[in-house]
What does this fold into?
Amino acid sequence: MHNKSKSAYENKEYGSFLKIMKQLDSLRPSHPVFTYNLAAALVLNGKTEEALPVMAKSILMDNGVDFDQDADFEPVRSKPGYQRILALKQQQNKTVTGSGKVVVLKEKDLHPEGLTYLPKAKLWLAASIHKGKIIAFDSQTGVCTDWFIADKGFAVFAMKPDKNEKYLWVATAAIPEAQSFTKELEGKAVILKIDIAGKKITARFSVNGNHLFGDLAVTREGTVYVSDSAQPVLYKIENNTMDVFLDLSQEAFNLQGITLNTAASKLFVADYLKGILAVDIKNNNRKWLSFPEGTTGKGIDGLAYYKQSLIAIHNGIKPVRLMQYTLDDGEKTITGCKVLDSNRPEFNEPVLMTVQDKQIYFFANTPWNAYKKDHTLDLQQCDIRHYTNIV
It folds into this structure.
């Protein structure tokens, strides 16, 4: 269908071009290319007023978009709304600094992802994508010590302890970026239940098919909720059994971070394209949250609940930013937002986060873009600072 849209555009069949772009946009909402082309198609069909909000959506996803350099947008430049588009772009280009460096990890080729703190043990842990392990690190010096080694070929994504710190729940998946990965492992994902004191696996949970378990949330009662980035499905582990909690295949695209509210009555789920879904745990009623004007729900990876608000790491947009979305009393609606960090040159791809002592910790620099075509890690390119920031 994308090739058909290109053909229609090149042949100046703008009516067909618009029709196809609307279809593509419905199939892949918030796709940067499709959104931009939809805006162009609207302008080319004389629908300039309809084009303006689509152009704003495009800018919110990528502030590098330059409508001034594209002749297709000439008809809209004289419209009053176009100045608002330029002002929005200028706003996105501003740098907001709300967090500071805590520590630099000494082990440079870890490719850290998940991060957690065990208060009783006074232990910081980081999950490694590349080396497929969990390391303990000194928060003052950054010295790393192996704490747990996962199965060969498996990357370690998220980690969450239970309330008593007896068990650590760990999300792992076999991906090419993990050392010792083989094609035979592709699509396999396992949730591990690790006895913290003995650092031993007490249970494994998996399902048949192609999966990537990227994040998890643990209730005070020990129920575990898991997001699958390969299939838009949420799983629940309860009574040592893993079952489907919510099948979102008809409405979601790419699930990422998940988090529970304080009462564990609501589960908030990030979708990389659509935004945030609020799910009522008791009855599975759900609602996609609407985002305030001037913001976007696209590109959310890490998600954490904090004082009747949601902290979201947007790493699938430009510039990368950290946002706080305030919720209403019923936690069904976003009532306000605040930019915590944005357009910082030292940010590469922050991912997951953890809340500890009323503060948010996360790795600001992760080397997802430092892998060669054969999925080996380019250490020269990867010579970046892996550090935890605090909000």
